[in-house]
User: Fold this.
Amino acid sequence: MNNQRKIEQLEKSFIAIDEQLELFEKQHSSTIKNYLKSWQEELDALTERYKKSEKSAQQKYDETIGDSDPNDQNNIAYATHISGIDYLAHKKQEDIEEIKAKYSDFLDLFSKSTLIGLYSLNENFLSKICELSSQTFAKKNKAFTF
Assistant:
C-alpha cells in the first residue's frame, strides 16, 4: 500500500513561491550587510586619513598657544585659526555626511528595486494561482478581479 500523498499543482506553486521568497530574503539580507560593511569601511578609512592631519593641527595649535594664557579667548581663536583645527573638524564632518548620503541613496535604491521585484513575483504568483484554480475548480478566476 502506498501512503505517499500526491502533491497537487497548486501546492507545488506555493512551495515554489516560498522558495523564491526565501531566496529574495537571503539576497536582500546579504546585499544590505555588504552595503553596511562597505559604509563602515569607508568611514574607518576617512577617520584614519584625518588622524594624521588632526595630530599635526593639534601640534600647531599647541605651538601657537605656547606660553600665552590658554584661557584667553583671543589666543584660543587665533591658535584654532592658525592650526586649522576648526577647518579640519568641519571638513571631516562634511565628508562623513557625504558618505552617509551616498550609502543612504544606495540603500534606498536597493530597497525600492527589491520591493518592485517582490511586487512582480507576487503578481505573477497570483496570476498562476488564478489560472490553476480555474482549471482545478472549473471556475473563471482572473487576477484583476481581486
About this structure: The chain has a mean pLDDT of 88. The helical segments are 9-65, 73-83, 85-137. Residues 34-145 form one domain.
